[in-house]
């Protein structure tokens, strides 16, 4: 016990040799304790290293009159509890992110179904309009042609193109709500 007090006093002045002797004295016991807590060899080694790093960092404030072993083991226990808290926080975060991803995928699937359903309804409605008007609308919306390009290809005026497209949109605005009134 007297020898340990002398080592702790030397440690407080930064004596690395004293630190090494304390490490040799407590390493195996601390490792066994850490292994008992964590049930994992790698984590037990990390806890031992972390505890001794903490001892070195706080060497100026260690009281040589108090039992060093108890101090060292309480550091290891506290580091283990910190590790558990971190693991729990990470687990919650991972679960939260997985839930967000699941909801995003579900929303995308639902939106795709809605878009698919809307596309199907629009196709049904477009079949009800005259063929030439449908052709003009498709050239504009699906092929992305300008009114001028459509007019040139079909040998009609831009004004006719505009009128035909407006008639299709008016028809769709009138008919679409009938299909989705119950949703």
* Beta-strand residue fraction: under 5%
* Number of E-type strands: 0
Main sheet overview: none
Report the principal-axis shape. rod-shaped
> What is the CA-atom radius of gyration, in angstroms?
38 Å
* Helix-strand category: mainly alpha
CATH superfamily of the largest domain: RNA polymerase sigma factor, region 2, helix turn helix motif
User: How many distinct domains?
Assistant: 2
Q: Helical segment tally? A: 7
| Helix content, binned percent | over 70%
Give the low-pLDDT segments. Answer: none
Helix-strand string: HHHHHHH
CATH class of the largest domain: Mainly Alpha
Mean pLDDT: 89
User: Cα distance, first to last residue?
Assistant: 81 Å
- CATH fold description of the largest domain: Rna Polymerase Sigma Factor, Chain: A
CATH architectural group of the largest domain: Orthogonal Bundle
